[in-house]
Amino acid sequence: MMKKIIFTYMLFVILLGTSSSCSDYLEVEPKNKVSANAVLSDPDGIRGYLANLYYQLPIEDFVYFPRAGYNARGNTGSLSLSQYSLEAIHSEWPNWNEFNNQWWDKGYKLNRNINLLEESILTVDFSEAERTQIEGEIAFLRAYTYYGLVKQYGGVSIITENQEYTTDWESLRVPRSTEKVTWDFVLSQLDIAIDKLPESRHNEDETKRRGTKWAAAGLKTRVALHAASIAKFWNQAPLSGEAVSKGLVGMKASEAEHYYKETIEAAEMILNSGSFNLYMPEPASPLEAAINYQNLFMNPNVASTEMLFMRGYGHAGGPLAHDYDGWNNPNQTGEGFPHVGRTNPVLGLIDLYENYNTPGESSPIITTTDGQLHDGEFNDAIPYKRFSSPEDIFEGKDARLFASIIFPGSIWKGTEIVIQGGIVKPDGSVIGSKDSYEHNGVTYYTYGAETPNRYSGFDGTPNMTRTGFLMKKFLDEGSRINTWLQSTTDFADIRYAEVLLNYAEAVAESGYGSILLATKALNDIRKRAGHTTIIPLTLENVLRERSVELAFENKDYWDLIRRRNYHTIFNNFIKTALVPMIDLRGPEPAFIFVRKNVPGAQPNTFSERDFYRSIPRINNNGLIQNPQH
């Protein structure tokens, strides 16, 4: 029902956007459209207007692509944020590192719409209770908007009143605030939202898709942790220049303590409310844990106790659907969609998942009998482990791996996913390009099968994985996707597990808060994944858990940015793959695995100036540019 309401409101406000353009001829009232004044002077119009503002929020979900921007649909190329982090790489463009999207213009357009709304509600007849809620909603939307700005640009111009159009450009110029003032502004707006928004709304759909007290508090844990990290780790990648000397970017390390405390207080408010819990927190086995975790993202509506804020999708074939399934289904189950298999999880992420027999430790994939990590091309002298089935090498791994990633030998939509990168002939020589080889009366193919429709990797074409892995998290195994805009899976933007991890990190970094409660938060998440051993609260444990639990939720990229270690990791850095090969050297054929650089990937280096984006059009707006741009 709520999806229908949102859709109706969106169409309604598309009309508003059309009618609000500034040209003389529009002074003649059109007969078939609703004027902006009419919308913003009517209670129902304002409710519809609000729904459209949610649609414009800079939520980094299924329709966010750094190259194309927010709410991007159509043939975007599916260059997702996870491919810019340590999680994945793109199957067609493994070396793409360009950010085309600028949130500046869209951010200030949204800000203007929020200011217009705030100005309008003063003259509209609402009950006091509803007016208070709308004021809280305005604060929530404004906080989300400026969070999108400050994390990309540092300190920005804070404009909270509608600016009337004038040719006196100088009067419209608003200088940038410092980065600290901007973060504090976002947090102050969230405090207003927490104070004025209700804990729940008329029904479950509305509660999870509009601002509530808990959504605002959850967002506050994310915002405050980001600000704390900028302050604490600024000196790991210090910049210089006018923007730095005036405090427009960067904060003092002494400010970190305050922001960690803000994170902790907001998180404890949620933890102590008793309103939230992890979905299916006590599985009977790792297998059950994997099924639960997959279901959590395939349909987040089943996990209402874990959801603080979601973005809803619906109406397959319409503007409120998306293409996440289409872009990421394996080639073998592509079902006619033109571009599949695009997001390829990398071996570096797979290595982070624990084994149940070594709790509290990353568990890299060991491919050799000597127990050592051997990275590089196949070497006949290395004692590779031999497996009768390719999936055997992942035995004992954390349940979330099996719920998030399709690996060689996985069963997906009733089909065994064939991912193979070569043949080792009996004499130890290798076939690595498209070919076949007959041995003992059996024909073996380089990529595991004769024709491309029967395999999903390594032949170098865009629809094939080049890492050995494919996406599973968020994909709907029951869907059939053969054209654009068929996916309607909702996106869990703020969930309880993230709040627990934000809390654990803030406590581990600062020493404030409850170590006992933070340790429980960390281990509750692991328990939901089938772990039975309690591990201590250490920063290493928290960050590893964050990488695994929040994988592909577009958090890892921002973790690298805020903790200021992106430039040290991405310094001539090449992501890695796990390449299965059929080995014919023994008495029986077997699968071996080679750890190597992603085929076709070049060294990638992140410039420190890119911790902040370029401020556009400084010659016109008079703003001070960010360092080195």
Q: How do the helices and strands line up, and which of them pair or pack?
A:
Elements: H1 2-19, H2 36-40, H3 43-56, E1 88-90, H4 103-121, H5 128-153, H6 169-172, H7 179-196, H8 204-209, H9 213-233, H10 242-245, H11 256-271, H12 286-298, E2 307-311, H13 324-328, E3 343-345, H14 347-352, H15 399-404, E4 405-406, E5 411-412, E6 415-416, E7 423-424, E8 430-431, E9 436-439, E10 442-445, E11 470-471, E12 491-495, H16 496-510, H17 515-528, H18 539-549, H19 556-562, H20 566-569, E13 576-583, E14 590-597, H21 618-621
Parallel strand pairs: 7-13
Antiparallel strand pairs: 1-3, 2-12, 4-11, 5-6, 7-8, 9-10, 13-14
> In which range does the helix fraction lie?
25-40%
Mean pLDDT, to the nearest integer, reads 93
Assembly status: single chain
Strand order of the largest sheet: 8-7-13-14
Inertia-based shape: globular
Largest sheet: 4 strands, mixed
What does this structure look like?
- This protein is α+β, with helices and mostly antiparallel strands.
- Helix content is 38%, strand content 8%.
- The protein has 21 helices and 14 strands.
- The strands form six sheets. It has a four-stranded mixed sheet with strand order 8-7-13-14, with no helix packed on it.
- A hairpin with a 2-residue loop joins strand 9 and strand 10.
- Helix 7 runs antiparallel to helix 9.
- The radius of gyration is 26 Å and the shape is globular.
- The two termini are 47 Å apart.
Q: What is the compact description of this entry?
A:
With 629 residues, the chain is α+β, with helices and mostly antiparallel strands.
